[in-house]
Amino acid sequence: KISSTKTTFSTMLRAATSTVAKRAIASSSRGAPKCVAPRAMAFHASPRREEEAKETAPVESKGGLFGTGLSEWFALPVGMAAAVPIIKFDWYVINEETQLAAVFVCFCVALYSQAGDAIYKSLDEKAQTLLKEHNEAEDKVIEALTQKLDYLKADSGMVEDFQAINQIREKAYADLNAAGKIKPQHDFKVQVERCLSMVAQEEASVTEKTKIALMEEATAAVTEQFSSTKALKKAALDSAIATIKGTATDASADPVQAAFVKFFKEKAAAAEASKDDSEEIAQREAMIAKMNAVAKNEGFFFEFDASGQPKMKV
């Protein structure tokens, strides 16, 4: 009976000791400095729910020894006074379990007092790093969403821009159509002016060549005439001497000039009497061939037939 009573009392004493230790640890944690006390950091990307946001009202506690308001130091004499009969009557047997518990408590106290700040700082630094990375990721997401919003706002006027572009395109097509009606007329005018310019240049060239040929022929005929006739030589010499002396009068005619005038009159009379127009026909055919070649190379709207009449191609 005594043995069973001791076992029962030992079990009750262990339960009471565990309860006292738990309350002592809780009381000591309330007196711990704020820098050591753990902080609960909660951060969410989504808004907290309404029921989670409500704060519970703090429970008032008197604190102290067993919640009586007395100082925790009273537990020391009470424990010493209670330990004497407990150990004396073997209500609690000090064995290897007690030693193991003492070593574990010493380890916890040493760890808390010596490395508590370092562990707290390490965990707090890791928490701050996670929070910083989380905030940076959220900032990037917000920046991307802001850029997308700006892009969508910029694109809100895209319909008006395309409408303005279409109006400009329609106006450009209308201007091109109006210019297309006038351009052929302008091109035709330029082509006709080109042909007229070619005709004028050809006539000027033929006229100049005819003048040179007539002058050469007249010079040769007059020279031969004065070379073969002594009377003409004497008349020409006397006229030249009188002109040099200044004794020439209006009545005295220059025989050389008279010979040239006579030659040209005879040439004109012979041309009027002659019905041979082969030279003119050859010149006209050459001119028509030249203008047709230019019209073909430059894409004129017309060409010339054998008679010199223009014919439209388009």
Description:
The protein is an all-alpha fold and 314 residues long. The chain is 74% helix and 2% strand. It is built from eight helices and two strands. It has a two-stranded antiparallel ribbon. A hairpin with a 5-residue loop joins strand 1 (302-304) and strand 2. Helix 5 (158-228) packs across helix 6 and helix 5 packs across helix 7. The longest helix is centred in the middle third of the chain and has 71 residues, at 158-228. It starts with a helix and ends with a strand. The model is unreliable at 1-10 and 24-47 (pLDDT under 50).
Terminal residue distance? 140 Å
Question: What is the CA-based Rg, rounded?
Answer: 67 Å
Given as residue ranges, the uncertain stretches (5+ residues, pLDDT < 50) are 1-10, 24-47
Any idea what the shape is? Answer: rod-shaped
Helix-strand makeup class: mainly alpha
Strand content: under 5%
For the biggest sheet, the summary is: 2 strands, antiparallel
Number of DSSP E strands: 2
Quote the average pLDDT.
76
Give the topology string: H per helix, E per strand: HHHHHHHHEE
- Number of separate helices: 8
